[in-house]
Amino acid sequence: xxxxxxxxxxxxxxxxxxxxxxxxxxxxxxxxxxxxxxxxxxxxxxxxxxxxxxxxxxxxxxxxxxxxxxxxxxxxxxxxxxxxxxxxxxxxxxxxxxxxxxxxxxxxxxxxxxxxxxxxxxxxxxxxxxxxxxxxxxxxxxxxxxxxxxxxxxxxxxxxxxxxxxxxxxxxxxxxxxxxxxxxxxxxxxxxxxxxxxxxxxxxxxxxxxxxxxxxxxxxxxxxxxxxxxxxxxxxxxxxxxxxxxxxxxxxxxxxxxxxxxxxxxxxxxxxxxxxxxxxxxxxxxxxxxxxxxxxxxxxxxxxxxxxxxxxxxxxxxxxxxxxxxxxxxxxxxxxxxxxxxxxxxxxxxxxxxxxxxxxxxxxxxxxxxxxxxxxxxxxxxxx
Length: 384
Ligand SMILES: *[C@@H]1O[C@H](CO)[C@@H](O)[C@H](O)[C@H]1NC(C)=O
Ligand SMILES: *[C@@H]1O[C@H](CO)[C@@H](O)[C@H](O)[C@H]1NC(C)=O
Known about the structure:
single chain, 384 residues, alpha+beta, Cystine Knot Cytokines, subunit B, Jelly Rolls, 2 domains, eight-stranded antiparallel sheet, 28% strand, elongated, binds 2-acetamido-2-deoxy-beta-D-glucopyranose, TGF-b_propeptide, signal
């Protein structure tokens, strides 16, 4: 038993020393320095250098909340890994607040390294103001243009991005694909002169402005603001030390929603020992990461925290199939049991399946961002 605990300690010590070289903190400042170093390291895991400076009470766009709820469960764990092509979705509100149907979005928060997969303009169509009985049009042609540099000519230059027939009587969100424009803006920021929407009758003439109206950031409720939604991949890869199987998240639905059942009391299990003080076999235990305790609740919208789980327990000979041992671990446990070679410990109890989590948060510019992070939750444990 003693050698089992010792081995467990060794496994833990080895894992920790990979990331934290010996430090030279004095005892008095140690805890504060360790704390800030640890939080900085945690930010890096979430792909950030500094925590976003957002502490307001802005309401996130309903679209982003719905998207988050579609991809993630209450704990933030990815429930549908095939819903998103990339790992990042960003939303931007119009900065122009124009009375015309013109919009401009500041994309400075998008990293140069992000691969643009798709971009959409979301406009909220309001009900017609004029009585419909006087109207002989049932459809209108709505076209979205990218505004181009027209300083050298006397007329506005623009490029058609997307065009569609929309029923005059309808109301609600209309989505237009504007991927090409956003890609060109990412190449040269100076070309981002905004977007213009033109509404025509089916005959091609100007449409009565009272019939086809879109909500503007200036005159309408916050929940109906014009919005740009950007789907990207930030090129972050999962920790190479972790699972090689990049399709791990596909099995998220297998993730047990309740802690592993067993005959042990919660407190005994959380220590990794049973009631008699014997080390339990390798298994998974809850490990709650609370963003409020870490001081991040100001800028993280969801989740409030998540269960990362951790693996603990002994891996003694003989390793049964429930331990999911690698062949290497089986041989190591045999060598350990036979004491054929001195100093060979039992294998380590480590996560053998990892799941991704999702974070919905405000960035430095108060845009709401959804990001997926791989390998954040231990799905199961094994002796390796
Ligand atoms: C875009 O936002 C950034 C960060 O808030 C700001 O520094 C920059 O001036 C803005 N650009 C424009 C064109 O408003
Ligand atoms: C632009 O307009 C001005 C005055 O209306 C005219 O003199 C000039 O030739 C025009 N330039 C071009 C490029 O059409």
